[in-house]
Amino acid sequence: MNKPQVSIDYWMDPEGIDFQDLDDFSTNLQIDYLTHFNQQKTDALGGGLYEFEVKVVNDLTLDQLLKSYLEDGVKIVISLYLRPFIKTIKSLFEKNENLEPDLKQINLKFNDCDIYVYSLYRGSLIENFESVASSIIEHHDQISKLINKKIKSLYIPIFKIEKENGKSEFRAKLDVDETIEEFHSIDYFKLWGIRTKKKIPNS
Known about the structure:
- There is one protein chain.
- By secondary structure, the chain is α/β, with parallel strands linked by helices.
- The protein has one domain (5-199).
- It contains four helices and eleven strands.
- Strand 6 and strand 7 form a beta hairpin.
- Helix 1 (22-30) packs antiparallel against helix 3 (78-95) and helix 3 packs antiparallel against helix 4 (124-147).
- It is globular, with a radius of gyration of 18 Å.
- The relative contact order is 0.14.
């Protein structure tokens, strides 16, 4: 398997203050990943600064990834091949605590599906990603069989919002004007959004 391609996008403050030891961070990532950074200065102060939006592009399907990590009959989950990445980001953030950095979103792009995992509160993705990844692997086949369709994309987590007209909507956490007062780790495992491909023909 080729190295995954990792792109990291984030906004800096108007003066362009950036992360301390960013070069070392990039060098460490290059050991396991092909890494690209896209930093931009914001033209206004506000939220969202120094929050990483991460895209990990793989040249194989999710099923192929699972099969490629079979050792002595034990399947090693997604979290293992991203563990060095999460560990390196955590170290960078700890060195730059004054910037209040965070991991806002991880997008895992496979040839057969996309997986989006969102931050719920500061530090929630670093704290919960390994458990979320394990849950994806545990339930992926079961979900596909239950809905009898191939999964095109997963959105983790989403929330059911009751409207005043009695109807409901399903959505991810909002960046602004969020009406949900609190978020917790358990929210990652309550409700997922699923977009599907065409129905699988009966065999």
